[in-house]
What does this fold into?
Amino acid sequence: MPALLSPASPRQKELPTHRRRRLACRYPALPVHFSAMEYRRLGSTDIQVSVVGLGCWAIGGEVAVWGPVDDNEAIAAIQQGLDLGITLIDTAPAYGYGHSEELVAKAIAGRRDQVVVATKCGLVWKEPGGKIERCLNPRSVMAECAASLRRLRVETIDLYQIHWPDPNTPLQATMEALVRLREQGKIRAIGVSNFNCQQMTEARKYGPVECLQPELSMLERTATEDLLPYCREYNLGVLAYGPLARGLLSGKFGPTSRFTDLRARDARFSGPAFARNLALVDKLKAIAGRLECTVAQLALRWVIQQEGVTAALAGFKRTSQAVENAYAGDITIPSAVMDEINTILAE
It folds into this structure.
């Protein structure tokens, strides 16, 4: 089992000064004053997680989805994130047909007690590369869990989440299977992803739901209207995915950028919408400069500071990205600047 951090000690031991300076020289995106990661309790569980999590969809290796990925670089990125205090790793079988989970296993070998492993169930396929479909019937859920345990090389999954609702399977049947897995010691906590409030209420009738994973970013704020208030009311943790809006809020794109992966089909990355989003990022860069951070770190921290959010799951493919993302766990956006950002977002 992973070691738990005391709720009374929300930050880890600070990084030594010489190590901070070495990291700052290697990764300019990580200022020398980076010192420690922040941690929060996950819902009503006894699990503490870093406020920045490693979102492992991109490292699944599907070129058509996120472009080419170097497995060794992805493993090194996870390990560097752990060195900087990130403890939360979120993956799923559907990320590269199990490949993402296998990379996570290699990265955390010998460090299991430092990591909170989160994965999912409910998206299945008949053969690698084949069509992925939703399936949450109990037999499938039990089989998926066994496969994930094998790929991840762990005895227990810390957080096991329903990836997407399955309209063909009663939630009661799915939840009963998840509760059974918890009773067997194969999972520690149950979560849901991409659920609305009504679906969460239904699921909670049949077992303890400890957290929700919704999409949330400066460009996708719908969750703040109903999902976050719901989770606050019922003390559910919130792991926000897509905090960088598929990289749009990373600050690395310009008017001439072209896309051949899944972003080629995303309206936010083309035409007038893309131009408007780039103009927004330019405004955010000015604010980030004042706070001595990057626009990606600003975007991550904005999500982390939304009331009710436990952690932001930031995607990565390279070590430099994991390092840059980690720094968002050690900055604070002053309330006046949050107001300034929210005014810009509302324009």
Observations:
- Residues 77 and 318 are 6 Å apart (CA to CA).
